[in-house]
Amino acid sequence: MPTLGVISDTHGLLRDEAIALLEGVDHIIHAGDIGDPKIIERLETIAPVSAIRGNIDRDHWAATYPETLRMRLFDSEIFVIHDRKDLAFSPGETDIDLVISGHSHRSNIEMLDGVLYLNPGSTGPRRFKLPITLATVQISNGRLVPQIHEIA
User: Fold this and answer.
1) Mind spelling out the 3-state secondary structure of the chain?
2) For residue 127, pLDDT beyond 90
3) Mean pLDDT, to the nearest integer, of 90-101?
4) What are the backbone angles phi and psi of residue 42, rounded to the nearest 5°?
5) How far is Cα 112 from Cα 133, in angstroms, rounded to an integer?
6) pTM over cut 0.85
7) Contacts (Cβ under 8 Å, ≥6 apart) of 16
8) Are 13 and 123 in contact (CB under 8 A)?
9) CB of 37 within 8 A of CB of 56?
10) Of all residues in the chain, what percent carry a pLDDT higher than 90?
11) Residue 123's Cα: distance from chain center in Å?
12) Under CATH, domain 3-150 is a member of which superfamily?
């Protein structure tokens, strides 16, 4: 059963605990606010990575990452956007199975109009008193099983 690692809002900090939780996943998606290109390089030592840029990713290196990403992975149609509020269409009216976003630093799993919406939270520097989290999604026969993992 393929497993997707989902991370966001690292803001230049990739914790050892996050690395440990991602070990063994088949693909990693970073939903923006990377903060440092070395984050992606380190993630690529674990599994293939697909990433978008977020609102803090403004340096020259970030131009290589798109603002959104639509991809087919493990027989699932996935759309990645940094801030879910910026969605300019209704995923429920498409063949998208999973929408991944970040930005809020708050982890969330929601099913809406047959589409799974996942925000893994943030693994970067703590913001307010929010927990440090990332997510995994097990994919089996078109079924998506998300899980939020709290680091600290």
Assistant:
1) CCEEEEECCCCCCCCHHHHHHHCCCCEEEECCCCCCHHHHHHHCCCCCEEECCCCCCCCHHHHHCCCEEEEEECCEEEEEECCHHHCCCCHHHCCCCEEECCCCCCCEEEEECCEEEEECCCCCCCCCCCCCEEEEEEEECCEEEEEEEECC
2) no
3) 96
4) -70, -40
5) 22
6) yes
7) none
8) yes
9) no
10) 93
11) 11
12) Metallo-dependent phosphatases (3.60.21.10)
Query: Which residues does 15 contact at the CB level (< 8 Å), separation at least 6?
Result: 123, 132, 151, 152
User: How far is the C-alpha of 129 from the C-alpha of 35, rounded, in Å?
Assistant: 21
Rounded Cα–Cα distance for residues 62 and 64 (Å): 5
Report the alpha-carbon distance of residue 149 to residue 136 in Å, rounded.
8
Q: Which two tokens stand for residue 53?
A: 């840029």
Q: pLDDT tens across 60-82, in order?
A: 999 999 999 999 999 999 999 99
CA-CA distance, 118 to 109, in Å (whole number)?
Answer: 5
Q: Which long-range contacts (CB under 8 A, 24 or more apart) does 110-116 make?
A: 115/91, 116/144, 116/146
